[in-house]
Amino acid sequence: MVSRTVVVTGAAGMLGSHLAARLRADGHHVRGVDLRPGVDVAVSGDVRDPAAMSRAVAGADAVVHCASALPSYPVAEIRSIVVDGARTVLSAAVRAGVARVVHISSTAVYGLPRTVPTTEEHPREPVDAYSAAKTAAEEYAERLRADGACLPIVRPKTFLGPGRMGLFSMLFEWAEEGRNFPVIGRGDVRIQMLALSDLVDAVTAVLDAPDTVANDTYNIGAASFGTLREDFQAVLDAAGYGRRVVSVPSRPALALLGTLERLRLSPVYGRLLHKLTADSYVCIDKARDRLGFTPLMSNQDAILDTYAWWRDQRKEPRDAAQNTGRTSRDPWKQGALAAAKVFF
Asked: pLDDT category, 248, cuts 50, 70, 90?
């Protein structure tokens, strides 16, 4: 294998840090970019800073743009980080003559897709600030691709693995406390997720593929997944208290959660609410057929692996002041939902 210099933006984040570690293990030189410190962060800089990004990508063989915002960020900040950040990083890489620039997007660009499994040809139909920003970033990437850049776009489903907190920390916390866990409606919707290790495999496959294969757009998700009820129940079973997933009526629950979101008393955002009430999964045939990508972990494998990590890391001292909710490594503040524990 030929050693390459690969720039990874968001190298202190969950995906970026794991991808950087994998690339190092494969013999590549990693030049990480982030505002936060990290093992592989060689360049401390903002992805929206043209001068800093030009310095970061100089002499690189490949760039993987992982840096992003969370859906819970303020609207203006989502737009700035996702869209302006992508434009700055991608254009700097193309100007520098980087041979391959991988843009990590999201299946959020489909909005609330009308058909499942959703293929890459489904229209982008954003429904909120986050999906609109991801769509705009993709559109810019496609313009650079049309002008001759080798610019693969990777669209992952929600991914889990060691280091993942966010809203999943709520499920893990309630399970560990020996509580039942609520699910909207019957919980029989099929929600595809993705193991972080499988996403890293997919990105390395894109980096290694010939230009004619890599220069495309790929959905990435688990091949094996069940219902939300089954996945959540697996965590409760692993906790060992004999607790169950409990159905709550859809309409009152959605109305209450929507109100709490508007009052900023809950971390649950609108698109997530709708996703929890309808099947959500993408077709990964293109990645399988063209990249040779085969996910090794199911939804349950990924969520149980993350829960096992969560249990272990709880034993280590953690500065509560660092739990800002700014990254997927931070547990989301449950807000008013914490008060609902007494009913479960």
From this structure: confident
| Of 141, 159, 142, 149, nearest in space to 201 by CA | 159
Q: How many residues does the chain have?
A: 344
Dihedral of the alpha carbons of 101, 104, 109, 115, in degrees to the nearest 10: 100
The whole-angstrom separation of Cα 330 and Cα 328 is: 5
Question: Tens digit of pLDDT for each residue in 24-50?
Answer: 999 999 999 999 999 999 999 999 999
| 5-151: CATH superfamily | NAD(P)-binding Rossmann-like Domain (3.40.50.720)
Mind giving me the DSSP string for 96-139? TT-SEEEEE--GGGG-S-SSSSBPTTSPP---SHHHHHHHHHHH
- What does the alpha-carbon distance between residue 41 and residue 19 come to, in Å, rounded to a whole number? 12
Residues 6+ apart with CB under 8 A from 241: 175, 178
* Residue 291 and residue 298 in contact, taking contact as beta carbons nearer than 8 Å: no
Phi and psi of 47, rounded to 5°?
-65, -10
Q: Rounded mean pLDDT of the chain?
A: 90
**Is CATH 3.90.25 what the domain over 161-192+224-281+297-343 is classified as, yes or no?**
yes
Domain positions in the chain: 5-151, 161-192+224-281+297-343
